[in-house]
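Re: the request from the purification team.
They wanted to know what the chain is likely to look like in 3D before they choose a buffer screen. I agreed to run a prediction and write the result into the notebook, where they can find it.
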Amino acid sequence: MSAAFRFGLVLVATLAAPALAAGKDPRFALPVDCEIGTLCTVQNYLDHAPGPGAKDQNCGSLTYNGHRGIDIRLPSLRAMTAGVAVLAAAPGIVLRVRDGEPDISFRERGEDAVRGREAGNSVIVDHGGGWRSQYSHMGNGSIAVKPGRWVETGTRLGLIGLSGKSEFPHLHFALTRNGHIRDPFTGRAPESGCGQGGTSLWNAEAQAALAYRAGGLLDAGFAPGPLDPGSALGATLPPAPGPKSPALVFWTAAWGLRAGDREEIRLLGPDGEILAEWSGQAPSDKAQSLRYAGRKRRGASWPPGTYRGEYRVTRQENGGAVAVIETAREIEVP
């Protein structure tokens, strides 16, 4: 989400802090303490399309109009509650912080409630040479540093949260040089356009971890009835179906779907019978998509055994269908 914000805090000078490096651009480490592609996901990149419309650095659709950072998201509120640390991406001096903003989606609070505090709980670090990094939407009460403190690469700044103008738990990470936005994947200003190449500002480890992924799975599981994204990706898991559940549902939550992607989902019984299935094409780009397939109980109880759910997303690329997401889950009903 947008992370522009204002502060009324005064920078505290720290004469004992190590000198900032001069003459050499910093290389930035992964700013979160989680595995990308397993727990964390890059949901949005910088918008490289000048004017209206939106394109990420690869001319893909993983961004939105005017986005000026990268959003590293958690799959659910339960993952946020467990706690994932936000880390300083390079050495520097903490310039400004904000804390005290609640972890509530702005869709619930309203835009007026976050006006002027769109970035939520945030930290800005000065790395010298005109370079600054900004860490936004962190957890309420989690900020672990104060203005004037020297931080090393990997110093804990706080936790990923849902504060400010945010719809899902994530870190919005942004870089500027002399006040101008720079894309850490290309080193370029986003106004230069997509597909222009450039020089990565990430260190080797972060660059490998942040390899471009054009869609993926957030979570999947089983429930005793239909559900919405709020309950599927909430603070607690949906209740597991049992022998007397009124229905048995397999659900999936995915990110990064593109218009034309084909989704297939099905639920299989203990004997391999297909109990429910659905397939269709995404009508438009989807930042997040919830699908489920299920069946109502037809007898006194569900037959005991192992029930299996399968989900697959394919995309047309280079003249053929490529699997973007493939997952399967199982549940034992006694």
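For the purification team: The longest helix spans residues 77-82.
Please add any questions underneath this entry.
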